[in-house]
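Sequence and structure are kept together here, with a separate record for every protein. A complete record is shown below as an example:
=====
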Amino acid sequence: MKTEISKLNLKQIIQQALKEDIGSGDITTNFTVDKNKIVTAEIIAKDDGILAGSDVVKMVFQYLDPKVNVNFKIKDGERFKSKQVIAQITGKAQALLSGERTALNFLCRLSGIASLTRKFVDKISDTKAKILDTRKTTPLLRDLEKYAVRVGGGYNHRMGLYDMMLVKDNHIKIAGGITQAIKKAQKYNKNKLPIEVETKNLNEVKQALALNVSIIMLDNMNLRQIAQAVKLVKGKAKLEVSGGVNLKNVRKIAKTGVDYISVGAITHSAPIVDMSMKIK
């Protein structure tokens, strides 16, 4: 599975994040710490979790001082325990102190997403279903948050409005119905992008199936409806369940035989995995 982050996007994000925090200068650090002082610090976990964002941390510190050495003890995607030393950082004290909060904010947030994603993935590991994310991401951080989903074992749905057609309820209302909306989408689909359609009942599933779409989304359907949809479609299109998915019901949903389960919570509601940086 591809897990790389776009380096160009990442550099721009880090620049803006540091500008937001440091602004015209870290006045406390600049006035109290010798600019040539070299120190070593450790990043220590305060929770259990899955690591994500190590490259981001390195780029934050090395943006402030290219000579900073950041050595992570584990790789992205690996588990860690509370009180475990995650990384050791050596370099100019001013760079470490000025970059500390920005680096930890990224690391805690991304590790939180990866950790919650892994919980969902582990729940359905013996089924064919895959956990998908959504576009419910923090503005401008989508690339990073979707990276964390991949690190946690999940899969990315569409990255934006440009790489896949998803005909949702509002499109259907404006177009005058599922058939009208899908036919218009197919007519202008010059690049042969996958077309997915959102359905709310079995009648809409039948309409979508007759139009040969790639994926049919079962939106907020109950387990009985989902199971009926699986029997109705018989593998002629991929099925995605969306809406109301949580750790308590995700396994039951997966056992119905659907292909995908999208979970907005893994990005919009993932709690951070807390960590701290301590000077040795």
